Amino acid sequence: MSPSDLEQPVLLSLVGGGLAAAFLHAALPTHWLPFVLVGRAQRWSLARNLAAVTAAGLAHVASTVFVGSLIVAAGLVLDTVIEGILPWLSAGLLFVFGGFYLIRAMARRPATAGGPGMDLAEPTVSHAAAFWGLVGVMALSPGEVLLPIYMSAAGEGAAVLAVLTLAFALGTVLGMTVFTLLARAGASILRLERWARYEGAVLGVALIAIGLLIVTHQH
């Protein structure tokens, strides 16, 4: 099925939900704080810092797409055995991930970005090692919260999955870039690290909302 064959409201909600989930997921400190700390330690220019963010964000999405493709393939096989189970399974996973982020947001203390790590010390590794180290870390950690959204779109065809992939890439890189820029502009003033708890809570609510949309669409 091509995107033009899918009902426009359904396609827009799917792409919009994927874009929002990717952006909110990228707002978690693990997706931008390392780039701020490494960039300051290496005394990177803004251009080099954002190049690392973009490369790592795309690597993160690529690994998500790879894992998601394997899950979608397995899910489609399962869906032929138990008809209609795939959307319910994806919605259930969204509820689980959403609940996990909500519970973790309420239980943990916000991460802090201050301390010795923020000092402008001399670089301890080469710029290439620091750059590719950040990219490698993100490539080896697929966006698990995005996988159920992939599963929900599995039956719509490769073209729709491709559009969803572009939405994931845009949301991820945009989110990582925005929060990296804000932190570079003055993390000590903005104290973005204190919002870690709320970012997790917002992401949890968003994932549950997307799950509810999938369930509603089945009726």
Task: Describe this structure as you would to a colleague.
By secondary structure, the protein is mainly α. It contains eight helices and no strands. α1 (about 10-25) runs parallel beside α7 (about 160-190), α3 (about 45-80) packs parallel to α5 (about 125-140) and α4 (about 85-105) packs antiparallel against α8. The protein is globular.
- Sheet/helix structural class: mainly alpha
Low-confidence stretches: 110-121
N-to-C terminal Cα separation, in Å?
A: 21 Å
Q: Can you summarize the main beta sheet?
A: none
> Helix share of residues?
over 70%
Strand segment tally: 0
In what range is the share of β-strand residues? under 5%
Shape: globular
Mean pLDDT: 76
Helix count, DSSP H or I runs of 4 or more residues: 8
* H/E element sequence: HHHHHHHH
* Gyration radius, in Å: 18 Å
